[in-house]
Amino acid sequence: MSDGAVAKRVRRSKAEQRAETQEQILDAAEYLFSRNGLHGVTLRDVAQRVGVHTTLMHYYFQDKRSLFAAVFARRAPVTSGRRMEALERYEAEAGDHPTVEGALHAFLDTDLDLYIEGGEAWMNYAAFCARVSNTPEGAELMDVHFDPVVLKLVSILKRALPDTPEPEIFWGYHFVTGSLMNTLARTGRIDRLSAGRCQSDDFPAVKRRMARFMAAGFSTLGMAPAE
Amino acid sequence: MSDGAVAKRVRRSKAEQRAETQEQILDAAEYLFSRNGLHGVTLRDVAQRVGVHTTLMHYYFQDKRSLFAAVFARRAPVTSGRRMEALERYEAEAGDHPTVEGALHAFLDTDLDLYIEGGEAWMNYAAFCARVSNTPEGAELMDVHFDPVVLKLVSILKRALPDTPEPEIFWGYHFVTGSLMNTLARTGRIDRLSAGRCQSDDFPAVKRRMARFMAAGFSTLGMAPAE
DNA sequence: ATTATCTATAGATCTATAGATAATGC
DNA sequence: ATTATCTATAGATCTATAGATAATGC
Q1: Which terminus of chain B has a lower count of CB atoms within 10 Å, N or C?
Q2: Do the beta carbons of residue B39 and residue A36 sit within 8 Å?
Q3: C-alpha to C-alpha distance for B26 and B20, rounded to whole angstroms
Q4: Cβ contacts (< 8 Å) between B65 and chain A: which residues?
């Protein structure tokens, strides 16, 4: 049942205690929301996983929706910021000739590295985001936190493909983000389909393939339609 | 509130009435589940949308999970069957030289056409599937209903790419299905990102681009890693 | 004194079942 | 007679708030 981290009550200052408990609540909520969604998790579930009383959820986070938003907001600036820096670094180093593949490496690999290096908590956040992205509740959260970095990517892609009409770039991004979210979700489907030859939590395997795969796709956009 | 179809009680035979009410329940459930997920919908929501009493949900469908599964099962054979036929037809006509793009056209375009031509109900089913695919509850449903047609696609892709190791094909499919599910979900995100230049319910636009985009991606798989 | 945590509880739903009613079926 | 639909209701949760208790802070 309670396979989560049980709080040890080695008490320090109130500020520390406050911060620690909040983090534990966010960790537990992140884990549960990532698997079961906003409506599939009760505040009692979260409290139980932390080992505290349900009402503490309300003490620290006004209500369920706020807790959900707080889970999103905790790590979003980290992933967003890292990708933004990587894109700016790439832009500077590519000068007048950025490539689609270069931009996608900066965007995708930077993000995947974060999950690869960040351990279980970050993997849970990744799955949480994938779920959120698919959800009406989550749509605005995505917009608010990730629009800037996505538009930055798009702006580089436009410069890399000056002859490709703008909507084509957005369609390309639409495909990219779908594949990325499917990766982050780690549903296990590819494992079963491939009889274990691929594993859905093998982010390094995705990282090795994805930017190049998608870059090739972009090169087909804006061509005369075949039909 | 009740923007759904309100049942007109023009009574016919019991068998007809039974079938009609079941369809209405499935339609309402499909609509609501596609937007809010299993846990985000109550049986009362569904009943209200149909205009009947909640207990009728239990009369026709044992419990909530069964209703959810029934929504999936109602249309799955249609999309699966159509794609299977299209793949077999393509296989026959391509003879010894199937192409990745040809197989993907058969797989993707056939599916997208179904939603394009099928009206609102099929669009709801598409969104329902997208949501299900991202969900622990839905994972086995996907496996049960869609494995055969996906494995058929994979088998053609293998013949089209005889020098590409098998796991690469599965990774390619992983990317394809992510993009497809992101399309079916119609979250509206691409609309907002692109300031209206693209629309997430514009399936014809996706159909025009997707098979070719993904086919180009497949051609990069199995190459020596760049790093 | 302040604040982290718990106890008690209100009020609202939600799922599910048993049994009544009102139609259709012969 | 059979069956589609509704009424009544049990039992379980769930969210959220008010107020008590037990720690830390000076």
Answers
A1: N
A2: yes
A3: 10
A4: none
**Rounded Cα–Cα distance for residues B148 and B42 (Å):** 32
Q: What per-residue confidence (pLDDT) applies to A226? A: 53
User: Is the pLDDT confidence value at B63 over 60?
Assistant: yes
**Closest C-alpha to B99, from B214, B180, B178, B224:** B214
Are A225 and B216 a contacting pair at CB < 8 A? no
Paired tokens of A203 = 């982010």
A208 touches chain B (CB under 8 A): yes
Rounded CA separation A54/A58 (Å) = 8
Domain boundaries, chain A: 3-221
Count the Cβ atoms, other than its own, within 10 Å of residue A32. Answer: 21
pLDDT digits over B126-156, tens only? 999 999 998 877 888 999 999 999 999 999 9
pTM of the predicted model as reported, rounded to 2 decimal places: 0.93
Cβ–Cβ of A197/B166 closer than 8 Å? yes
CA separation for the pair A165, B33 (Å, rounded): 36
Q: B164 CB near a chain A CB, below 8 Å?
A: no
Q: What is the pLDDT of residues A139-188, one digit of tens each?
A: 888 999 999 999 999 999 999 999 999 999 999 999 999 999 999 999 99
Task: Work out the mean pLDDT of chain A and round it to a whole number.
Answer: 92
Chain B residues inside the 8 Å CB shell of A205: 171
More confident residue, B65 or B8: B65
**Cα–Cα nearest to A197, from B151, B6, B14:** B151
The alpha-helical segments, DSSP class H, found in chain A are: 14-36, 43-50, 55-60, 64-94, 100-104, 110-133, 136-160, 166-185, 189-193, 203-218
The strand C neighbours among B residues 64-103, by Cβ under 7 Å, are 64-65
Q: What is the pLDDT of residues B82-134, one digit of tens each?
A: 999 999 999 999 999 999 999 999 999 999 999 999 999 999 999 999 999 98
A132 close contact with B: CB closer than 8 A: no
